[in-house]
Amino acid sequence: MSNIVKVGMAEYKAVLYPGILITLGLGSCVGICLYDPISKVSGMAHIMLPSSKLIKNNSNPGKFADTAIRNLLEEMIILGADRKRIISKIAGGAQMFNFMSNDLMRIGERNTEAVKDELNKLKIPIVAEEIGGNYGRTIEFYSENGILKIKTIGHGTIEI
Amino acid sequence: MSDYLNNINNQIIDILKEIGNIGAGNAATALAKMINKKINMHVPKVNVLEFNDVPYLLGGPEVLVTGVYFKIEGDIDGSILFLLDKDSSKTLIKLLIEGYDGDIFDEFALSAIKEVGNILTGSYISSLCSLTGLNLKISIPSLAIDMAGAILSVPAIHFGQVSDKILIIETQFIQDKYNVRGFFFLIPDYDSYGTLLNSLGVSEYE
User: Does residue A29 have an active-site annotation?
Assistant: First the structure.
């Protein structure tokens, strides 16, 4: 299946129908899927940190919620997506290790908040989410119908 | 200190390798005592890799791995992750508990892995302390068994604040025909890089 496009950590990619976007082993990072149901232009970003503004080493836009989503959106518009029709689905943001009261250990939660804030600012509705927990996720996003498939080890497979 | 790991030089790698070597030596001794058998080890490999290449050291982002995670407190703050692939986890349990044929990921096996992680990490940190003169303590361990990519997102995110790369210390223990391959990720908090590098004798990061 040559239409599968892998999105690695700190990357974002946009594809046309019939592309399938996948991210393997998402942990505390958040996977953001954007979709225009009419043109079927699809995008996926795999962010690691909430904001490019809090960090000096911020030259890689794919790493941060604020910059990655904006850049992805631009790429999708270039591919023919209509800004007004775009919806989103998000997954990830797990807490892989169980420690209390450490700010960095809550990074999954903070990433999720930042992603939701950014999508809100851009007025992109979040139509489905599979967030949190303490387990990893592999996600597959189908441009054909906008379905997001989430696979886990020991927590089943779901479609949202 | 714009990108600590991009600028990391051979000198730092050598120092970390040496610490890894002494640490692994201590760990091998501790492990040998525990199981009452002779343990050999390879000289640790120290690598600096791109985020997305790291899971392939363990067989890919979706492969099941065991991670034992500790917080570090003291002169530097941070964390340390000890990672084993599935085969090494199995081998380790066989070494520890002769004739054990239960599920390798049941409670009993998991607490054994946690304990070994504790001993190995403790040995590593105490050699870091004696080489640098830093005073460091590790927390109780936290364990996760999941996809390599998901577990590795933890060190990747921490390193992500200063770099697009990850520093990895690979250790191998050999007991007769058994081979256990483990990976350490030493993860200083952002504010602690300077202290760590200075204590390693790298003055340009002051």
Answer: yes
Question: ipTM of the assembly?
Answer: 0.89
pLDDT digits (tens, 9 = 90+) for B160-204: 877 777 778 888 888 888 888 888 888 877 778 778 778 877 665
What is the secondary structure of chain B as a DSSP string? -TTTTTS--HHHHHHHHHHHHHHHHHHHHHHHHHHTS--EEPPPEEEEEEGGGGGGGGT-TTSEEEEEEEEEEESS-EEEEEEEEHHHHHHHHHHHSTT--S-TTSHHHHHHHHHHHHHHHHHHHHHHHHHH---EEE---EEEEEEHHHHHHHHHHHHHTT-SEEEEEEEEEEETTEEEEEEEEEEE-GGGHHHHHHHTT-GGG-
Q: What is the model's pLDDT at position B206?
A: 41
Residues in A closer than 8 angstroms to B147, CB to CB, are 24-25, 27, 136, 138, 153
Chain B contact for A157 (CB, 8 A cutoff): no
Interface of A with B in 96-115 (CB under 8 A): 96-99, 102, 104, 107
Whole-model pTM: value is: 0.86
Query: CB B67 to CB A10 under 8 A?
Result: no
What element of type H or E holds A56?
A: none
Active-site residue, from A29, A33, A45, A49? A29
Interface of B with A in 178-197 (CB under 8 A): 189
B139 touches chain A (CB under 8 A): yes
